[in-house]
Amino acid sequence: MMPFCSQMEQNNPSLNVAWFQHPHLGNAQNLHHSNAQDSSSLECPNHVDWVGLDDSDHPQNFTTLRKWTITFAMSAMTMWVTFASSVFSAATRTTANEFGVSSEVMTLGTSLVIFGFTLGPLCWGPPNERYGRRLPLFLGYAVSANFQIPVAVGHNVETIMASRFL
């Protein structure tokens, strides 16, 4: 059986991939494919690479400010998600008394967030592959942030539970 990339190469022989040449490591082709006979993986249409050494989309070419901004933003978002998932547990007894349910029922508010974490990759994974990480990541954060509003102003347990899940 022929590898997928070899099949694609036979169907479209004009495929040509320019390899990124790292200034310290040399040509990636020499590093990863020292066997010259196995060139089918070099021309795989699924290979994504940078245009060249000065490609502005290459993370190694980002300015220091941009690198720190991205690092801070991702760290803050990770901290926010962790905080948002567990902060509800501190108010379990208070909200249980307010809505007249047991504290076990209100514990479900914390559990549903974790259950949403398990199903989230099924929802956001395909757009992540198609559009890159930025759009689905920020769209997911926006959806999550907007569903915190019904949790804060919800008048019944069902609204709170559904909003915590989403």
From TrEMBL:
GO molecular function, one term: transmembrane transporter activity
Subcellular location as annotated: Membrane
Record keyword Nuclease present: no
Chain segments annotated as transmembrane: 68-88, 108-125
InterPro entries, A to Z: MFS_dom, MFS_trans_sf
Major facilitator superfamily (MFS) profile domain mapped to chain residues: 70-166
Entry GO CC: plasma membrane
UniProt keyword terms in alphabetical order: Membrane, Transmembrane, Transmembrane helix
Membrane topology, from the record: Multi-pass membrane protein
Protein name as annotated: Major facilitator superfamily domain general substrate transporter
Organism for this UniProt entry: Penicillium cosmopolitanum
